[in-house]
């Protein structure tokens, strides 16, 4: 969520200082934050010299923020991008290092086919143009965890360009409405990951782990089409789901398989884009949103106070919740790019251009990969909405948790209950329990069939509150079926009509004041009576039945 | 025995006239006796003897691995050799023992070759004299030859003999000297701008630079990746063909090698000369070319013509830009390739531990000589964002023009180009070091270096001795991947010119027996 000083103007687009009531001197609320061309520094809207010449007075200007993202996703592959070393996040330090990874002189890169396929699939899923010919380049900088002194990347001609990422953000008072947005995908490039440096400041030592050195990365560059932390976080979440659906990356941010750098600038609508800063290494969606919102606010404050924004690299201090300039000079370095001479151009084919008589192991056919693309999250959600009449936000919620959709579908298979009811069970009760206990779907003590059975009971034999009780019991005592619990706890609905009549009667007798209220015509008074009766039945009677009996007894 | 060619000695081994161990021991003793040449940085005596023993067992069982089984070979010290120090003649890699073999080394070993040692070079192969390595310069065996000494005696008097030793050329001078002085039968060099052909010409041996992509570079410590090729130094063209047949072919570890399989081959004898068209590039007739080399060059052209070949003058118009273009591309790649030498994973590391950056700086300062540092500095300059377009990109364009020159010439019907390899014969060290490394490299690479830009095969074949009694070689340049055709022409030429054998008796007067042909008289040769 946004920092308190800020508030939303048109959905997620522009930032307006509190206290001016959203009145802009520039009038129309055309969002100028995003330029579709992706070129930075020049706005497509003509400048207004008179206004720009004036010194802004605090709180009088309207601000638009522009956010672009660079995402590094580790490719899910058994071996590294250019060597045969295994990839394993949890392996002991320096146990997965080939001669090439350690940059022993004379070793040469050999491109991993799986990584190329992952890049092509990701490109196709993001509607990119796949370059039939792409090139590798060396990007030079000295760093202890970069053994060769350069990273092999795709600077000049990346494998995929010009795509788009469609994502949704919540809007509205209750944040229950989903609005679809699009961020341009400038390019996707293949590159090597670096190793890891562990600084032991106590002994002033740096320890190097090269297990990660040379692991394949997909660098996805999103155009500056976003305007706040929430949008950025939503875009990243969607990308994450896409990568996971494709199987091209596990995209686990906590394990560093997905890392995000954000480029952020602010400007007055109608004026050229402002100077941007880069916030590096954001390792969770929440911090990403926080860092971006903080940085936007910082830049606005800075400019409002007559200051200047420096083109610099900043990092997010998650403890303090603010961004701070990075001390290293990485941002200002000249990387001295040059073509990687040891790798010939990467050529890709489609079914038409595929040269005859080639070894299929030696070529990659884009059309073939396109056919193998799995269903993308967007489509899955649309299907859920269509098939089950689900609310769009519920379809999002189902996909957002790993394994939840599968769980839902398994419950659906085993019950004839209303899908809406199942959705509610899964998203409210089940997910609520999971979150509360910080468990993954796979760790749940409640199986889909148990939930399905419970749902069945819910419709016939027990009240909804009793059902919740059964659920709690299911959670606690693994192995018991809902039927067993219902029997044990005597939770089945009261079938004895006479007993219920009796209970109702005694309740009416005990609460004459409420009865008077009912008779006076207070519509809510009857609910109080129903509640009292339910309590007396220990929640085992159906409120509609109670109501009927009460109304009859009161001869309403 | 040692004076023989690889092919001859291979035959002798097969006939049991000599055993691998005998051969190995003789070569080892010769290496010791010719220590003054400084051809070897590391002599892998134990390894070689062990390999010889294995080879001998195979011969006894009749399971020889082929032509190279039991043959002593040497490898330039910029090829990785598992378990054997690989220094690139640099402080940076002093003490570095690679954990793996270069593909070409592995292929030689797989064929049963005996690895005698690692040969001397210019630091990281940057030079044209084999004078700029930390282990000191390589001396040209011809400095001690009877042919040269006799000529010198006639001219100068009273000067100390040894102060006038000649350079081998470079940077594969150690390999050239090793083959020339009979300490091995074939040696690996590397060739980026002429580093195999140049010393081959100066040392009177055959120096082959195969087509780029024909032979794996995996394990060759790079100078310029886009131009480096493992080179082959032998005493005759047939031997070069044998070694090439073994080394050539796709290597999954080097993505720039050709996919098509390459089979070992033997060179046919050229019979119908009328179908051959020899091109003489007019741009190679430069004022710096010594008159002696020039006259041998035209003599060679005449030889082809008189035997029925078509000899025509051709033009390679962009030749003059080659050196400056090479300078930009070479230094840029050097700057990049040398970035890995930071003292962390392997190689030299300084004592400074103030900061990582200080450690890098001191390590690299101590590890590299001035030549290497100079190239790194220029290369980084050319790669700067502001210079990249003006230098690197332009140089690449010029490179394409140069390559195109060759394509045009070959498309016009020329089969092979005939050029000088070097401007003159080998010069004395004292004279050579009057100019700095950069100037020398620029001069000496003149005829050889455009070939690397174009990735073509080329071979230097010794033709005759100069008036000073020193070898002069000529270069043949072939079409890309037409290495066999090139070698076939070179073989014909070699047969015609009958280049004299080096007479090294004086250098090794106390091991004269080595040169006796005790058993060879009975060897029947094809």
From TrEMBL, chain A:
GO terms for cellular component: glutamyl-tRNA(Gln) amidotransferase complex; mitochondrion. It catalyses: L-glutamyl-tRNA(Gln) + L-glutamine + ATP + H2O = L-glutaminyl-tRNA(Gln) + L-glutamate + ADP + phosphate + H(+); L-aspartyl-tRNA(Asn) + L-glutamine + ATP + H2O = L-asparaginyl-tRNA(Asn) + L-glutamate + ADP + phosphate + 2 H(+). It holds the Pfam family GatB_Yqey. GO terms for biological process: glutaminyl-tRNAGln biosynthesis via transamidation; mitochondrial translation. Keywords: ATP-binding, Ligase, Mitochondrion, Nucleotide-binding, Protein biosynthesis, Transit peptide. Residues 32-51 have a biased composition (Polar residues). It comes from the Eukaryota. Its main location: mitochondrion. GO terms for molecular function: ATP binding; glutaminyl-tRNA synthase (glutamine-hydrolyzing) activity. Its EC number is 6.3.5.-. It is found in: Mitochondrion. Signal peptide: none annotated. Residues 27-57 are annotated as: Disordered. Residues 406-554 form the Asn/Gln amidotransferase domain. Belongs to the GatB/GatE family. GatB subfamily. Allows the formation of correctly charged Gln-tRNA(Gln) through the transamidation of misacylated Glu-tRNA(Gln) in the mitochondria. The reaction takes place in the presence of glutamine and ATP through an activated gamma-phospho-Glu-tRNA(Gln). Subunit of the heterotrimeric GatCAB amidotransferase (AdT) complex, composed of A (QRSL1), B (GATB) and C (GATC) subunits. This is Glutamyl-tRNA(Gln) amidotransferase subunit B, mitochondrial. It comes from Phocoena sinus (Vaquita).
Automatic annotation (TrEMBL), chain B:
One of its GO terms (biological process) is glutaminyl-tRNAGln biosynthesis via transamidation. It is an enzyme of class 6 (ligase). Residues 27-145, 167-487 form the Amidase domain. It catalyses: L-glutamyl-tRNA(Gln) + L-glutamine + ATP + H2O = L-glutaminyl-tRNA(Gln) + L-glutamate + ADP + phosphate + H(+). This is Glutamyl-tRNA(Gln) amidotransferase subunit A, mitochondrial. Keywords: ATP-binding, Ligase, Mitochondrion, Nucleotide-binding, Protein biosynthesis. InterPro entries: Amidase, Amidase_dom, AS_sf, GatA. Residues 146-167 are annotated as: Disordered. GO terms for molecular function: ATP binding; glutaminyl-tRNA synthase (glutamine-hydrolyzing) activity. Allows the formation of correctly charged Gln-tRNA(Gln) through the transamidation of misacylated Glu-tRNA(Gln) in the mitochondria. The reaction takes place in the presence of glutamine and ATP through an activated gamma-phospho-Glu-tRNA(Gln). Belongs to the amidase family. GatA subfamily. Its main location: mitochondrion. SUPFAM superfamilies: Amidase signature (AS) enzymes (SSF75304). The active site is at residues 76, 171, 195. It comes from Phocoena sinus (Vaquita). Its EC number is 6.3.5.7. Subunit of the heterotrimeric GatCAB amidotransferase (AdT) complex, composed of A (QRSL1), B (GATB) and C (GATC) subunits. GO terms for cellular component: glutamyl-tRNA(Gln) amidotransferase complex; mitochondrion. The keyword ATP-binding applies. It is found in: Mitochondrion.
């Amino acid at each position: 969520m946004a920092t308190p000083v800020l508030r939303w103007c048109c959905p997620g687009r522009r930032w307006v200082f509190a206290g001016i009531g959203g009145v802009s001197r520039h009038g129309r609320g055309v969002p100028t934050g995003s330029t579709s061309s992706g070129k930075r520094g020049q706005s497509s809207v003509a400048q207004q010299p008179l206004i720009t010449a004036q010194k802004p007075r605090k709180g009088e200007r309207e601000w638009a923020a522009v956010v672009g993202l660079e995402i590094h996703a580790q490719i899910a592959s058994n071996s590294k991008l250019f060597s045969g070393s295994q990839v394993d996040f949890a392996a002991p330090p320096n146990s997965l290092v080939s001669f090439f990874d350690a940059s022993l002189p004379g070793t040469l890169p050999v491109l991993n086919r799986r990584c190329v396929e992952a890049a092509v699939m990701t490109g196709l899923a993001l509607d990119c143009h796949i370059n039939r010919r792409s090139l590798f380049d060396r990007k030079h900088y000295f760093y202890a965890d970069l053994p060769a002194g350069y990273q092999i990347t795709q600077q000049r001609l990346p494998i995929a360009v010009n795509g788009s990422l469609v994502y949704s953000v919540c809007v509205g008072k209750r944040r229950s409405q989903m609005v679809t947005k699009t961020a341009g995908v400038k390019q996707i490039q293949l590159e090597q990951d670096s190793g890891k440096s562990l600084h032991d400041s106590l002994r002033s030592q740096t320890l190097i782990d090269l297990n990660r050195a040379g692991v394949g990365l997909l660098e996805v560059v999103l155009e500056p089409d976003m305007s706040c932390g929430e949008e950025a976080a939503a875009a990243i979440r969607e990308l994450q789901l896409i990568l996971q659906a494709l199987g091209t990356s596990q995209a686990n941010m906590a394990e560093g398989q997905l890392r995000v750098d954000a480029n952020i600038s602010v400007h007055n609508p109608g004026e050229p884009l402002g100077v941007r800063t880069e916030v590096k290494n954001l390792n969770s969606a929440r911090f990403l949103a926080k860092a971006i919102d903080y940085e936007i606010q910082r830049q606005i404050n800075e400019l409002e106070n007559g200051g200047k924004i420096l083109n610099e690299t900043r990092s997010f201090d998650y403890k303090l919740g603010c961004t701070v300039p990075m001390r290293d000079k990485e941002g200002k370095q000249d990387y001295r790019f040059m073509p990687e001479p040891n790798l010939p151009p990467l050529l890709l084919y489609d079914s038409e251009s595929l040269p005859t008589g080639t070894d299929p192991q030696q070529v990659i056919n884009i059309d073939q990969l396109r056919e193998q693309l799995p269903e993308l999250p967007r489509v899955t959600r649309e299907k859920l909405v269509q098939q089950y009449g689900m609310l769009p936000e519920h379809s999002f919620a189902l996909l957002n948790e790993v394994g939840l959709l599968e769980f839902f579908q398994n419950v659906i298979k085993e019950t004839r209950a209303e899908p809406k009811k199942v959705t509610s069970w899964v998203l409210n009760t089940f997910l609520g329990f999971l979150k509360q206990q910080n468990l993954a779907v796979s760790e749940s003590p409640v199986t889909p069939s148990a939930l399905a059975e419970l749902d069945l009971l819910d419709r016939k034999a027990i009240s909804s509150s009793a059902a919740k009780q059964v659920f709690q019991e299911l959670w606690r005592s693994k192995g018991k079926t809902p039927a067993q619990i219902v029997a044990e706890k005597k939770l089945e609905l009261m079938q004895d009509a006479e007993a219920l009549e009796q209970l109702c009667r005694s309740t009416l007798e005990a609460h004459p004041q409420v009865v008077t209220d009912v008779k006076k015509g207070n519509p809510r008074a009857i609910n109080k009576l129903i509640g009292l009766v339910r309590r007396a039945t220990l929640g085992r009677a159906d409120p509609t039945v109670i109501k009927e009996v009460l109304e009859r007894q009161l001869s309403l | 025995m040692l004076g023989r060619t690889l092919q001859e000695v291979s035959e002798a081994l097969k006939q049991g006239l000599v055993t691998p161990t005998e051969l190995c021991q003789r070569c080892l003793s010769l290496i010791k006796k010719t220590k003054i040449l400084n051809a070897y940085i590391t002599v892998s005596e134990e390894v070689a003897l062990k390999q010889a023993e294995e080879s001998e067992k195979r011969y006894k069982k009749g399971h020889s691995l082929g032509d190279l089984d039991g043959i002593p070979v040497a490898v330039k010290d910029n090829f990785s050799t598992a378990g054997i120090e690989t220094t690139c003649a640099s402080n940076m890699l002093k003490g570095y023992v690679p954990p793996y073999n270069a593909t070409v080394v592995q292929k030689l070993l797989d064929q049963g070759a005996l690895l005698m040692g690692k040969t001397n070079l210019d630091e990281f192969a940057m030079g044209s004299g084999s004078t700029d390595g930390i282990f000191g310069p390589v001396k040209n065996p011809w400095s001690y030859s009877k042919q040269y000494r006799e000529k010198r005696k006639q001219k100068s008097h009273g000067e100390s003999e040894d102060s006038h030793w000649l350079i081998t050329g470079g940077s594969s001078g150690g390999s050239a000297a090793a083959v020339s002085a009979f300490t091995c039968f074939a040696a690996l060099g590397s060739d980026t701008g002429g580093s195999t052909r140049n010393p081959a010409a100066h040392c009177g041996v055959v120096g082959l630079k195969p087509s780029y992509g024909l032979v794996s570079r995996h394990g060759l410590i790079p100078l310029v990746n886009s131009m480096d090729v493992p080179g082959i130094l032998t005493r005759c063209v047939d031997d070069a063909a044998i070694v090439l047949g073994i080394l050539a072919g796709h290597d999954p570890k080097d993505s720039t090698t050709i996919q098509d399989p390459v089979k070992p081959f033997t060179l046919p004898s050229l019979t119908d000369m009328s179908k051959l068209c020899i091109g003489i590039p007019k741009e190679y007739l430069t004022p710096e070319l010594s008159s002696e080399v020039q006259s041998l060059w035209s003599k060679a052209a005449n030889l082809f013509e008189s035997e029925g070949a078509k000899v025509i003058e051709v033009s390679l118009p962009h030749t003059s830009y080659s050196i400056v273009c090479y300078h930009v591309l070479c230094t840029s790649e050097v700057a990049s390739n040398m970035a890995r030498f930071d003292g962390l994973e392997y190689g030299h590391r300084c004592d400074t531990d103030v900061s990582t950056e200080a450690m890098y700086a001191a390590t690299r300062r101590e590890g590299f000589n001035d030549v290497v540092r100079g190239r790194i500095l220029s290369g980084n300059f050319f790669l700067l964002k502001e210079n990249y377009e003006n230098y690197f990109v332009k140089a690449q364009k010029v490179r394409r023009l140069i390559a195109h020159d060759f394509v045009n010439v070959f498309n016009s019907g020329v089969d092979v180009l005939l050029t000088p390899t070097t401007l003159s014969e080998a010069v004395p060290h004292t004279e050579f070091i009057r100019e700095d490394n950069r100037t020398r490299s620029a001069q000496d690479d003149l005829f050889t270096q455009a070939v690397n830009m174009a990735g073509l095969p080329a071979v230097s074949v010794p033709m005759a001795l100069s008036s000073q009694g020193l070898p002069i070689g000529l270069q043949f340049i072939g079409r890309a991947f037409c290495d066999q055709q090139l070698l076939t022409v070179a073989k014909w030429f070699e047969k015609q010119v009958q280049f004299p054998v080096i007479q090294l008796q004086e250098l090794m007067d106390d091991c004269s027996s080595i040169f006796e042909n005790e058993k060879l008289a009975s060897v029947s040769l094809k």
